[in-house]
């Protein structure tokens, strides 16, 4: 299939390639939305890529008091890693350092998975013997004393082995301002898709990479084919009208969640149009050698 044009935007005849991951989710609540978000944002900091962060994490969705276990404002946070042991490590470190420490916070399971990960059952030891076990309606919680009262934390949360990481598409524009506007529209639309996160800053990555590099030990390095400043000195994928490229990377609880997020994001970019946003959309892949999940852009169009 040749490239197609939709609403004046060129859609490359290519595909995004993604891979299997392990994932979990928790629900963080607090006395108000500000502190629920603060705990969630702090916990998901430095979690853009498994390449250097150990995990990928972000807020999936904000929850009203009517949708949380304790009737307070909350956030559902998702965490992705390549293996169960690393996921468990990242979960406990991040909840222990960033949620337990946040004023008024509580933490609950956010996923019913095929297996369980330790949550309060491990963090309870911070109570130094003063922690209290509590079972309510078939769920197990730990009440850990802290200086503003108690940290209520569910004993475990779920693990899924069917998560997918690495869904993506490129937003390509005549200027950096237009690329950013289009990428922001995509991220806003993806934010409405449950079970999918965009882990990079504000959901946007400007440093799309290729595997390896010319320096020893580099796992990933600059994808020079998509760097506008190198056009003319490398084999570039950019035409003369493209001066900025931003990448949207998507992790999903399921294959369907990633596909739904890509469709929502691409639809938003197309609706924004080329005069205000992108003139071309493409995607990153490794020729089908990296992962088993393939998302053809032609199948992601509105």
From TrEMBL:
Pathway field of the UniProt record reads: One-carbon metabolism; formaldehyde degradation; formate from formaldehyde (H(4)MPT route): step 4/5
User: Which reactions does this protein catalyse?
Assistant: N-formylmethanofuran + 5,6,7,8-tetrahydromethanopterin + H(+) = N(5)-formyl-5,6,7,8-tetrahydromethanopterin + methanofuran
Q: Which Pfam families match?
A: FTR (PF01913), FTR_C (PF02741)
Q: What class of enzyme is it?
A: transferase
Gene3D superfamilies from the UniProt entry: 3.30.70.520
SUPFAM superfamilies this protein is in?
Formylmethanofuran:tetrahydromethanopterin formyltransferase
**Which GO MF terms are attached to this record?**
formylmethanofuran-tetrahydromethanopterin N-formyltransferase activity
Q: Which residues form the Formylmethanofuran: tetrahydromethanopterin formyltransferase Ftr N-terminal domain?
A: 5-146
Domain of life assignment: Bacteria
Q: Does the keyword Iron-sulfur apply?
A: no
* Documented EC number(s): 2.3.1.101
Where is this gene product found? Cytoplasm
| UniProt keyword list | Acyltransferase, Cytoplasm, One-carbon metabolism, Transferase
Tell me the ranges covered by the Formylmethanofuran: tetrahydromethanopterin formyltransferase Ftr C-terminal domain, including all copies.
149-299
Q: Does the keyword Iron apply?
A: no
Q: Which InterPro entries match?
A: ForMFR_H4MPT_ForTrfase, ForMFR_H4MPT_ForTrfase_C, ForMFR_H4MPT_ForTrfase_fd-like, ForMFR_H4MPT_ForTrfase_N
Q: What is its main location?
A: cytoplasm
Family designation: Belongs to the FTR family.
Subunit composition and interactions: Homotetramer.
- Under what name is this protein listed? Formylmethanofuran--tetrahydromethanopterin formyltransferase
Q: Which organism is it from?
A: Mesorhizobium onobrychidis
